[in-house]
Amino acid sequence: MLTLWDFIEPIARTLRDAVTGKSRAKDQRAGIEVKTPARVKKPRVRPPALKPPTAAPSASMPVVTKTKRRRRKPQAPQALTAPAIPIDTPPHLLGSSTSETADERYDRITQLMLTRYRVRVRKWRSGMTGMAWRVAYRDGSIVNLIEAPKPKGPMSAAVFLHEIGHHAIGFDTYKPRCLEEYHAWRWSLEAMQALGLNITDAVRHRMHLSLWYAVSKAQRRGIRTIPSELEPFMHRPARLSKRRGRDDHAA
Question: Would you list the domain boundaries of the chain?
Answer without folding.
Answer: 94-245
